[in-house]
Batch of 2 targets.
Target 1
Amino acid sequence: MDIHEYQAKEILSRFGVTVPSGGLAYSPEQAAYRARELGGNRWIVKAQVHAGGRGKAGGVKLCNSEHEIQDATNDMFGRKLVTHQTGPEGKGIYRVYVESAVDFNREIYLGFVLDRTSQRVMIVASSEGGMEIEDISANKPESIVRSTVEPAVGLQEFQAREIAFALGIPNSLTQQMVRTLQGCYRAFRELDATMVEINPLVITADNRILALDAKMTFDSNALFRHPQVSELRDKSQEDPREARAADRGLAYIGLTGNIGCIVNGAGLAMATMDTIKLAGGEPANFLDIGGGATPERVAKAFRLVMSDENVQAILVNIFAGINRCDWVAEGVVQALKANPVDVPVIVRLAGTNVEEGQKILAQSGLPIIRAGSLMEAAERAVGAWKNDQKQNTKMRAI
Ligand code: GDP
Ligand code: MN
């Protein structure tokens, strides 16, 4: 789960990272008021969206008066900000963050990520901040410092000092840099983050280390033990289909094709999508109903898939190990009886209680297309979607 910059800054400052003073606003008037509260005569107004690259896309503006703040935020509110990270549809701007502008001499990149190879938290830093890390690694790879943290002891002071030296931080600021690094690491560990990024971390004209930007991502599977983090969720920044699914405990990824997929298990979902593509179709989504799918869950999954108007056929592919085919079949039948759908439904069942499952589908009287293998299911789904209504009707009768 992602959070906003202002939220990440608030969290990190609790862990000892220094951030500029700022205030959140939900309207241009409030933004101007925040500037007055902060005092001074130069402010940075920043669109709060769950994406980086805002600066280049017009989401970060330097303002020299309250009037300029009103103008800048008038242009931002309600608009979709399209950055290289949002995709073409962009992300809506409903909050802006107003900060006192800061003069700085140097920009540093600082990132904490999970390194799968070493199975450790890895610190990635560069003296070339301000650019995206992808550009740094393409253009200035020699500037990148990497350091993995030994989980048993955490980020030690000597290790943090080594990173500060490698970045060329002046001696007078080493201690502050150590505090910043250790603070980020503790926030990462204690809150089950999967990413902490400060870009840029700057050395100010008055010789302080300050996080001008902050980004944090959290492990969704660990949110249950961090209610203070999970309440920071902002659904306006999520794909509405994915948000609805997450609220119902289903794993859903929205895609752009026409065939809805209801599957149990992420690996099977991948295989199902590959097979649909092989058969010449495009998946509309990836919906994982999980291991212990009850009829209620299957019914929820159908409602969710059907709420996507691009869906023109539904493929249910279940391999029942822990699950039971008869439960899933019961769920499919219940769901279709309660909410009949006007698109072809193809069901492939395999594993535990498959005969009982097939019987339930066959006796339901519903126009469900049954398939034996995954390839057959995919071909039928693609065929059903491509063919005209007449052919569909013929296939439904099979
Ligand atoms: P991003 O583009 O989404 O990563 O947004 P950032 O928060 O990183 O802002 C983009 C750029 O604006 C930064 O790289 C800085 O160069 C600049 N910037 C942000 N805050 C300040 C500030 O207080 N003073 C000055 N001079 N520049 C700032
Ligand atoms: Mn940034």
Note: The CA atoms of residues 41 and 65 lie 6 Å apart.
Target 2
Amino acid sequence: MTSPASTPLTQDQLKALVGQAALQYVLPGEIVGVGTGSTVNHFIDALASMKGQIKGAVSSSVASTARLQALGIAVFDANAVERLAVYIDGADEIDGRGYMVKGGGAALTREKIVAALAERFVCIADASKQVAVLGGFPLPVEVIPMAAQQIARRFAALGGQARLRLKDGQPLVTDNGQHILDVHGLQITEPLAFESEVNQWPGVVTVGVFAHQKASVCLLGTAEGVQTLQF
Ligand code: 5RP
């Protein structure tokens, strides 16, 4: 994709650029792990050009499954797969060590499950997602509904304000039938320890910090083109 020097690429064009660039990590004959979100949607659309060369995909959401299948890409159940060479997904934030915040699209639990099958996590993101410290983006946490308030109090003790995510005025229900808390006001300076700690809290299904499963590579869409960051 090219752009006149005076016309900067839009955020969506940057997402399309990295979605296309991610094809270089898709190995012929393999099953590819596929994330969720607007950046991944560009990747899925690009992946259609390779559908004859791959076995198919393991998907991280109902929405990605529908998009893959509409393009004629076979979707495998995660239980049918022992390992994936690569998992490709977006992020809401990524820091200089490859640690991420994810879950803006409410798919964080299945994203972590599919990422855990993969040898490499390739993050695709526009440059606005790059941060020095995680937490500026409200941290998504998938919770069992009956535990939401006690988990909110635990975040308050850490200085965060947890808000139940709504959709059409009602609590958003995830693909797994659970709720999402979005936690504002955190500064996550120790992502590994933070993820381990929150994982212990009763009622937490998944915390949106991806530190134990950080990115191996990030394809970052910038005004100068796609930068490849290795972690
Ligand atoms: C979905 C996610 C997405 O990867 C994240 O929200 C980024 O989305 P987008 O590509 O639309 O900016 O974690 O749960």
Note: The mean pLDDT is 96.
